[in-house]
Sequence to fold (453 residues):
Amino acid sequence: MKELTFFEYSGYQDSTGNEADSLASTMMNLDEIQYLRSVSENLIPGKSIFEISSTKIRATSMVGVISFGGVQIEILPKLLKNNYSQQKESNSSILKNLMFILSFTNVLEINDVGIASLSQNCDSFIEAYISIFAQRLSRHLIRFGTPKAYVEKSENLNTMRGKISFAKHSSLNTFDQSHIFCDYAEFTDDNSLSKALKFVAQVLCHLTSNPSNLSSLNRCVGLLDGVQASFVTSEELDRLTTGRREPNFVALVNLTKMFLKHLRPEFAGHKKNKVFAILFDMNELFEEFIYQVLKKNESSLSIQVTAQKRKRLVSEEKDFLNGEKWVRRNLFDTYTDILVKPQNGPELIIDTKYKIVHSQKSHYGISNQDAYQVLAYRQIHKTEVSEPSVALLYPKSSEDIKKEFRINGSSSTFMAWTIDISRDLKSDMPSLVEELKKLIQKSETNTAEDVLR
Fold:
């Protein structure tokens, strides 16, 4: 297995621990490189996972794992790395923070697994997820046995069972009165859920290189003896009636659905290859994380938080060919990332951007588009009596930035702040909340200053 570790917006980690982006040094052959190009361009509609030229390869904002053929690629968000970590611990600190964010945002609930021990025992993203699945499945099978469920069956039997299907019975058994065609429900462990659990466990046995994970998965396969492993769609699992179950079981089913969803993407010309991929866009994950931090601390921060607030850009239109009168029209949807409403004071609109900013870049790395977008939010949400504060929020990279910019020929301003998500998020969440509190307080101060001006 060829294993590569990339970092978002960067190259990969070479054998010496340094960052590289040479395509030739990846040790992938031409067929594997061409297949990776296809995966990168087609796996997620509208998004590329890598930037691949004739000689270079770099990751974008997608993080997670891709496995195909004899290649396994992991992409980690390096902005989550604790600055105090030693080189050998840096990937572990990234993994620990990433798993915490995924848990905190409910992308996949993992609160019943010790995140700290998970990052220590598993040296990669995929191994961490395999460990979660193996632990949950093993725990459930040992405690409760193989999940049983009613399975609807239709068979031509020699004894009556359930109810007679008269239409089929009359067509099949006109000359054979020894059989009865019946529809019935059988309570069995060879059901869709059990088949899916065994299928996922067997597939993960081929993906893992961690001895502990492999041992746990093999034990689970053995405990599911008598169940026929088969691929089951997540939609079919949704239709199963499992009754009231403990949280571990619900989480196990959700995790099984996630694995099934990502196990079988195929691309034209590569029918022999199957891709396993679990990927998250850090732009979306960063936005959701900041929103959840604010939402879960509304009371202590004395705010109300709304995500993805929609407002129309256009309120009226004039037709120069038909009267030239203003007519009420609502056109062009706009969506703010996060809308914060303090108990006292005007609104604050936070537009999250998962980009690297620092003082050595032109405009600090803040693009014209970012500035235009956040100023448009300020104008659209302006009322006759108040005007919201607006802020671009970036993850902290090599340095902290806390800026406010006044627009030429106007009293309007916008802020650009960085927030440190490289800290130990599980143990140091109060400090992160305090950083966001200062941003909210600063926006209130700036609004008051605007009124005085």
Q: What stands out?
A: The chain has a mean pLDDT of 81. Residues 297-452 form a domain with the Trna Endonuclease; Chain: A, domain 1 fold (CATH 3.40.1350). The longest strand covers residues 326-342.
